[in-house]
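Page 37, continued from 36.
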């Protein structure tokens, strides 16, 4: 088998056995292919390289201006690839095992204040199909904290307005997430009056469509978010993930249980959810430093 064959088998392993998300697979494959290109350019055999040569690749990436986070992720991708090769019997040991990760300064997610969220959600004007649709999407994201990939994958059957929840399937698991009344109202108006106008095929069960009658894409929704950020004149950088972060932090600020937030977000590991506790504590400390007369 060629190295391309092994990389292809690794991609199938990530998809079929590890059940990794499309974004994770894309990132890992890009890192592994870039590493293989580096080896090929230097006439190095991927089966017979040393830890020193991997460390030289790390220095190569750093020298080209790659961030510590990018280098660390790349090391993790290559380490995973070689773990697969070892388990498959292609190589006896991993040359990445002793390579240390680059120290990454921890960056906490950008969180909107409650007032900023209200301002942002007020931007879509419910005077036409686009306004009603955009309002429903933004309300849904802040109400549930789901990922954008999960939102655009939703079908009509995943929404239960009478019970006030949505069903979200991701990575082989299913979770039920409640909706607050304003989100129910926004979705009801959209689903009853607007969705039939946008849907090009009556048999299409997608919940959200673009103006061409096709299922909403990540890129399309990203443009929508940036448009309303500029319209609201909010200086913070708002990405489609910002409402998810804000959802979690605001629930925590108002006394929600960390485990409940973990379940709603769909985090497999509680440590992924605990970052929001650090965000809330940091915000409190910042308020204290600004407001206390002796701080």
């Amino acid at each position: 088998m060629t190295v391309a064959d092994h990389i292809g088998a690794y991609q199938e392993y990530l998809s079929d056995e590890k059940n990794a998300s499309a974004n994770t697979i894309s990132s890992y494959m890009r890192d592994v292919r870039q590493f293989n290109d580096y080896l090929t350019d230097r006439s190095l055999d991927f089966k017979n390289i040393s830890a020193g040569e991997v460390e030289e690749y790390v220095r190569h990436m750093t020298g080209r201006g790659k961030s510590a986070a990018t280098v660390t992720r790349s090391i993790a991708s290559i380490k995973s690839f070689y773990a697969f090769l070892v388990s498959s019997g292609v190589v006896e040991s991993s040359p990445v095992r002793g390579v240390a990760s680059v120290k990454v300064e921890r960056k906490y997610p950008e969180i909107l204040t409650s007032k900023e969220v209200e301002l942002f959600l007020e931007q879509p004007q419910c005077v036409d199909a686009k306004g009603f649709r955009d309002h429903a999407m933004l309300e849904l994201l802040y109400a549930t904290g789901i990922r954008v990939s999960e939102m655009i994958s939703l079908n009509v059957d995943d929404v239960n307005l009478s019970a006030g929840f949505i069903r979200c399937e991701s990575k082989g698991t299913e979770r039920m997430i409640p909706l607050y009344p304003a989100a129910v109202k926004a979705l009801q108006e959209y689903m009853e009056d607007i969705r039939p106008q946008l849907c090009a095929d009556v048999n299409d069960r997608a919940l959200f469509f673009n103006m061409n009658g096709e299922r909403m894409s990540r890129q399309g929704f990203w443009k929508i978010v940036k448009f309303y950020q500029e319209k609201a004149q909010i200086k913070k950088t708002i990405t489609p993930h910002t409402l998810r972060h804000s959802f979690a932090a605001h629930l925590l600020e108002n006394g929600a249980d960390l485990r409940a937030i973990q379940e709603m977000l769909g985090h497999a590991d509680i440590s992924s959810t605990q970052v929001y506790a650090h965000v809330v504590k940091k915000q409190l400390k910042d308020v204290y430093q600004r407001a206390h007369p002796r701080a």
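The chain has a mean pLDDT of 90. Flag for discussion at group meeting. The domain at 3-87 is CATH 1.10.150 (DNA polymerase; domain 1).
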